[in-house]
Amino acid sequence: MSRQNVSVVGLNPVQNKPADTITNDDINPVVDTTTKEDLSVSESPKRRLVITHLVLNNFKSYAGRQEIGPFHSSFSAVVGPNGSGKSNVIDSLLFVFGFRASKMRQAKISALIHNSALHPDLASCSVEVHFQDVIDNENGTTTAVADSKLVVCRRAYKNNTSKYSINDRDSNYGEVTSLLRERGIDLDHKRFLILQGEVESIAQMKPKAQNENDDGLLEYLEDIVGTSKYKKPIEESAQEVEALNEICHEKFGRLDIVQKEKSNLEDARNAALKYVRNENELTMKKSALYQLYVANCYENIHITEELLADLAAQLEKEVENNKGNEDEVENLNNRYKEAAKELDNLEIQYKAAAKTQSKLERDAVQLTERKKHVVAKQEKLSKLIASSKLSISSSSGWMTNYDEELEKLTGEIDALKKNLAAEEATFEEIKTGLEGKTRGISDEIEKKKKLLEPWNQKINMKVSELDVTTSELRILSDKRAANEQAITEQEEKIKTVISNGRAKEKDLEEFKAELKHVEEQIRLGEVESAEAASTLESTRARLSIIRQKAEDARQKFAESQSQGNVLSSLMRLNDSGRISGFYGRLGNLGTIDERFDVAISTACPALNNLVVDNVETGQACIEYLRKNNLGRAMFILLDKLPQRDLSEIQTPENAPRLFDLVKPKDPKFAQAFYSVLHDTLAAIDMAQANRIAFGKKRWRVVTLDGKLIDASGTMSGGGSKMSKGLMRNKLVQEVSEIALQKIEAKYAESEQEFAKAQENVNDMEDSLKNLKKQKPKLELSISKTELEIQALGTHLLDAKKMLNDLKADLESNSANDKVAKSLEKKLAGIEKEIVQLREKSSTIENEISDLEERIMEIGGVKLRIQKAKVDGILQQIEIRNDRISIAEMAKAKTEKESAKERTSVTNAEKELAEVEVELRSVQVDLVSVENAAREHEHASNQTAFIVEERQEKLKEMKEDLDARMKEINAFRKSEIEIRNKIEAHEKELRENKTRLKHWSEKLTALSLHDVGDGQPLDLPVYSEDELSDMDKDVLKAEIALSEEKSDNAQIDLTVLKEYRRREQEFETRNADLKDAVSQRDAVKHRYENLRKRRLEEFMDGFGQISLKLKEMYQMITMGGNAELELVDSLDPFSEGILFSVMPPKKSWKNISNLSGGEKTLSSLALVFALHHFKPTPLYVMDEIDAALDFRNVSIVANYIKERTKNAQFVVISLRNNMFELAKQLVGIYKVNHMTKSITIENRELEAVIGR
């Protein structure tokens, strides 16, 4: 009889997963059907898992260690009387496979421990299941696979706990069950286990489960076929499709509402778009204007930067040119002081010589004065005689000269009158040229002159009369006046002599007082000069200190500038008082020996962190940096630092701790330094660093050349470029630009103070020298003055004698006094008349002058010049007329004096003889004194020469020193001026950059409104040529006009935003709707695919199982029939599956209507059919043959023996028809309530059966 069998290709691993862990990706076909001749013959040998034996230790009825087995790889039977413990074999398997105690007919795990009279109180029990892989051979035998043994053990304790192990390794429930599932044992559906009384229940299952907690035939088959994994995804997909349908309807409704709202905004949106386009035009104009501003700023910045570069180069050149000048000035000053000291010693020597010389000179002066007086008298007398003789001889010559002069003056007057006529003609021509402008004025002048002419004639007549009378009176009065003049002159001479005498006496007193004052001033000057020199030295010392401070400040400022904008900006902020509690860079707040500079710079980059008092100051600094976009900085908050113990620690090899080497500027900064340095040690070299770092305790160590070993052992640092300069060996105070300016100003003030002190010392020294020079001069002046006073006494006696003689002459010449008085009276009358006439004519003259001045104003400079020429000629004529008058009077006077001179010559010659005798006596005495003076003069002159030479050299040194000081002061002044210019340009540069930033920000802030017309939204960037063609004022005007239009427009711009929002909302809603529909369709498609796959896979497996069921039942019953039917052929999952059976020679019946044996056969047929569809390596059956007759038991036993060689069957049976066919018999028996077992290999029986 030929049969078709189903061969299992293999299950996908997903089938061993719980149903709730299946994903869509795990869903794939489960089985593949092929046709084979027999299930017992496989295409090729395959490994399968079998149980070799069981080891039970105090488990249930098994006391002590009991080994059950070995089991045959295909068919083993467990036999024994009822109550002997056969079913406990199955319980032992369930125990190891992880089932609960209730599945083993016990309430709790501890009840599984053996309990009998001999073993009443055992602590635990255990079961070991020994597995092994085998390969089926073609001759029906099996071959064990080497190294494939597997021992799974479970141990239970009295406290109801249990432990698992795999191959003597501790394990857990999850690992054990996963391992068994992987090896093919169906723990989920328990198909490997068919218990007593349960075999019929398989076939009696309902077509479909009534609820979730129930099982039906449909669910049972679906689990085996593997389509149950689709149930939950299908249900979830159906729910998702329903939910997405609702979402689609909701989104469609919302889309319709948005469409209506968008349509209502169209008109307002169009009006707003027009306004926005106008706004875009305004923005474009603003962009052009702002770009023009930005371009101007860039140009200004470029020019300013070039100027700054030139000034910096100029400053550098000035500094280079004046390098070393201050040291040279210091050397010059020292040399000057030494030379001045030597000069003082020489001057002392010179003073002694000068004193002696002064006495001799005073004696010589006295004699010289006497000689002068005598010589003067001699000369005077000689001159008097000579002059008198000359006067007598020249009187006649003068008379001739006066006549010639009168003739000459008369001729010159005639020439001047001719010249006057020419100039007056020119003057008139100029006036004629102005006739159009001055005709009225000229006519008026002519009228006035005609009115003035009669008065001028009268005045001229009186003036002529006055001149005649005056001449007569002058002749009379000259004679008397000459006598009186002589008396007056002599009286004046006496007065002069007296006055001179008194003046000389006063001078003498003044000289003496001045000499006393000079001596006092010399004494005070020497004291003050010493004090001034001391002051100069202290001022020089202060200047040197301030100069050093200024240089340090410049260096510090340069360093702070090199540290970037962050520190300099915060320093300026702190100096301005806008923040407090900012201390600057940490590295500047302490000092360290320069030997450790590289070490600390390498070990602590955090020295560049900035130190502040508290969080508020730190936040203010950060906000300032952020607001001004100056960069970032790390801050150390003093109030947040933990207060650590800063005392010295014991270190390996007494290596210094960097923290202990730091000297903080203030103790409050110590915690800040420790927070960044900690206990870092300094080593001399790498060898010492390695010894310290890797000792018993790990240390952080840095070498002096910058190699760092961290506490973790990592090394860094070294290389060609070492870190250094983060800390100095002296305190570095941060200097801001404001502070630098103050120091520079103080330095300039100190320089001025020093220059003033230097000048003061020089002035004092010069004054003292002048005073010392004045003293001998004053002493000589006193001697001279005393002699002059004596001489004036003699002159006074002579003058008085002469006065008496003149007065006697005056009394003898008083006869003409009455005539003179008459002429004087007449002269007074004439003068009175002239005054009256001039008063009457002055009004007309003033009017003429005013009119002429008006003409002058009209004529301008040319007319005034010509008028000045005319007036000048008139003045010259008048001068010559005066000279003629004088010459005439001098001629008369000369005639009178000639007689007087003859008398004077006689008297003077007599007196001259007496004076010559006195002169010879004085000359003898003077020669004697002069000879003595000359002897002393040589030494004095030699000393004076040396003094003068040294003074000249000292003066040259002083001039050189002053010149150098002047150069230095000029350099300093120039330096300050250049720095001020640099500062001004830098300020201008900052202002331009600020303006650039302002206009750039305003330019960046500009943006075009998106009107949705596809035009680019980027503002145009204009070139330099385009910007140069633009007119700033035109742009401003256009912007103002556009802004005015915009301000007057009443447009609601929110409508654009609202319309755009509605439009976007519409697009979003539409996209959401499309996405929702697409998502729904995708889920729906997945849902349909899942249902289709579930149906196809299930129907495929269902067909195979149903076909094999029919075959199995026909074989077992010898002619019966059985099949699985779909209650609903269109949807097998709606109503479930019916198991229909037609026993041999009977009609079709529902399985529930069969007898017990028929139910058992039907169930076994289904079990065997399922085994062919999805084999499991192990079957344990408990008295499944109890309800079968002899014939059916034999059929089932033979089937198990012959047709299921690809699995291991362990059957518990009391029917010999069953166990006699088994390959291995395991006998179970009980003695004293303790179960034991014995195993028999069924060879003899097999042989009998075979014969």
From TrEMBL:
InterPro entries, sorted: P-loop_NTPase, RecF/RecN/SMC_N, SMC, SMC_hinge, SMC_hinge_sf
Gene Ontology molecular function, alphabetical: ATP binding; ATP hydrolysis activity; chromatin binding
GO CC, one annotated term: condensin complex
This protein's record includes keyword Acetylation: no
Gene3D superfamilies linked to this entry: 1.10.287.1490, 1.20.1060.20, 3.30.70.1620, P-loop containing nucleotide triphosphate hydrolases
All residue ranges annotated as the SMC hinge domain in the record: 580-693
Coiled coil: 308-363, 399-426, 473-556, 733-788, 820-854, 891-1002, 1056-1093
Pfam annotation, one family: SMC_hinge
Alphabetic keyword roster: ATP-binding, Cell cycle, Cell division, Coiled coil, DNA condensation, Mitosis, Nucleotide-binding, Nucleus
Family: Belongs to the SMC family. SMC4 subfamily.
Chief location bin: nucleus
Subcellular location: Nucleus
One GO term of the biological process aspect: cell division
Name by which UniProt lists this protein: Structural maintenance of chromosomes protein
